[in-house]
Specification:
With about 300 residues, this protein is an alpha/beta fold. The protein contains nine helices and 15 strands.
Length: about 300
């Protein structure tokens, strides 16, 4: 299911937070990477943006009852765009890392994804440090995948950095690099596409602090009231979107956040519409008492 960006045009009449006068009068600008990043963000031929995170942004803005507008920004300049006031938040698969937390605040995480190595089918490539000797690894600059690659392969491996993930994908298909590393969900979509039909996932990167704590909404340090509101409302907004819109059928595994059997607080319970029931008639939203991560379970 995809909704276009039209839902960003929502009323700010019931804004429930004490934003500055300027912020209350102007739409909140929601920043994300300007390049296509399916299944999270991608633009149609008419220029309308759609995808999982566009849906999340729509749901969040609707829950906060604020007017929002999309603001695609080149990824390597997206944090400066936030801190300079060009945009008001980043909702674009940005990993929560200690380095980034020095500059911006993050909401509670709203999803987590591992990272996959992708190469040509039948390549037999070994992504261990020994097996990668003499190989070329492509990654998008400014990402946690780039941070991990430079940490895991300090010697004997050429790390080639690209401005966009599309450029990495294209060079892999053209044979100009041997393997690439990117978010698992994006790679799942890529290898199923026409462009990636001759590629395959060859390995999943191990857990590492370089990948951060998961994905969150980034906001300016001084916007503490907006951060509080985002944390309060994103759970409900995403939950409503996921269940009421039947979206959870496709994205339940993406929204099944880490937390395991740790104690959790039930935030909301919703009856699932009959047309989109999947493993139960009720879905429960919980917040982990251990790490505040959100998680969903059917019943």
């Amino acid at each position: 299911m995809k909704k276009t960006i039209s839902l960003f045009a929502l009323s700010a009449a019931a804004l429930g937070i004490a934003l500055t006068a300027a912020a209350a009068q102007e739409p909140l600008k929601v920043g994300f990477g300007a390049e296509p990043y399916p299944p999270f963000t991608e633009a149609s031929a008419s220029g309308e943006w759609a995808g999982f995170e566009i849906d999340i942004a729509n749901a969040l803005c609707e829950q906060m009852q604020v007017t929002c507008e999309p603001a695609p920004i080149a990824w390597d300049g997206i944090i400066p765009a936030l801190t300079s006031g060009q945009i008001d938040m980043i909702l674009g698969s940005m990993s929560i890392t200690e380095e980034r937390k020095q500059t911006v605040n993050f909401s509670d995480r709203y999803y987590y994804t591992a990272s996959d190595f992708v190469a040509a089918k039948g390549s037999g490539i070994d992504v261990s440090p020994e097996g990668m000797q003499g190989k070329i690894l492509g990654v998008q600059t400014g990402t946690t995948n780039a941070d991990y690659a430079q940490k895991a392969y300090p010697d004997g491996v050429e790390i080639k950095l690209y401005n966009t993930q599309d450029e990495v994908n294209a060079d892999l298909v053209a044979g100009r690099i041997d393997v690439m590393l990117a978010d698992q969900l994006a790679m799942d979509a890529f290898v199923k596409s026409d462009a990636g039909k001759d590629m395959e996932v060859v390995a999943t990167a191990p857990a590492d602090p370089a990948f951060g704590e998961g994905i969150g909404v980034a906001l300016r340090k001084e916007d503490t009231e907006l951060l509080e509101k985002v944390n309060e409302e994103q759970a409900f907004g995403i939950f409503e979107l996921t269940v009421r819109g039947c979206f959870y059928k496709k994205r339940m595994r993406l929204l099944a956040f880490a937390g395991g059997d740790a104690p959790a607080q039930t935030i909301r319970t919703l009856r699932v519409p009959a047309r989109c029931r999947h493993g139960g008639s009720t879905v429960i939203l919980e917040r982990s008492a251990r790490d505040r991560a959100l998680r969903y379970r059917a019943r």
